[in-house]
Amino acid sequence: MNNEVLDCNRRLEELDKDIASEEALLREDKRAAREARDREVEEVQSRHDDLVAQQQSAINQVIVEKARRDSLEESKRGQQSLKTNACARIQECTDAIRRARDRERDRLNAFGQNINVVIQRIERQTWVGEKPIGPLGRFVTLKDPQWKFPMQSQLGSLMFAFAITNNVDREALKRILRETRK
What we know:
The protein is mainly α. It folds into two domains: 1-79; 112-180, no CATH class. 77% of the residues lie in helices and 0% in strands. The chain contains four helices and no strands. Helix 2 (115-124) packs across helix 4.
C-alpha cells in the first residue's frame, strides 16, 4: 500500500507539475493574447487617429474651398455688375452716336434733300485744285440761338455756297449739283 501511496503521490506530483506547466503555458498564452490584443488596439487606435486627422483636414479643406467659392462668387457678381454697366454705357454711346448722325443728317437736310449724295460725290471725285468745301453753313455753329434769324438774314444764301479753288472745278461741282437735284 505504501507503494500505491507513493505511486499516487508521485502521480500527483507529476500531475501538479503538468498542471503548473499548463498554467504557465496558459498564462503565457493569455499574456501573448493580451499583447496581441493590445497591439491590435494600438493599431486600431492609430488608424482611428489617422482617420480623425484626415477628417479634420478634409473639413478644413472644405471650409477653405467654401470661402474661396464665396470669394469667387462675389468677384463674379462684381464682374457681372461691371459688365452690365459697360453694356449700358455702350448702349448709351451707341444711342448718342445714332442721335449725332441723325442730327448731322437733319442738319445737312437743311441744305437740300440730296446734300449727302453731293458730299459723297465730292469726296469720290478727283479735283484739279483743292476739293470743294461746303455747303459753308455746315461749318457755322451759333453759340447763342437768339442770333439765328439775324444771321440767316445777313448770310442767307452764303450758307448754301461751296468754296472752290478754280473754274474747272466750278464746272464739275455745278454738274454734280445739277445731277443730284433730279
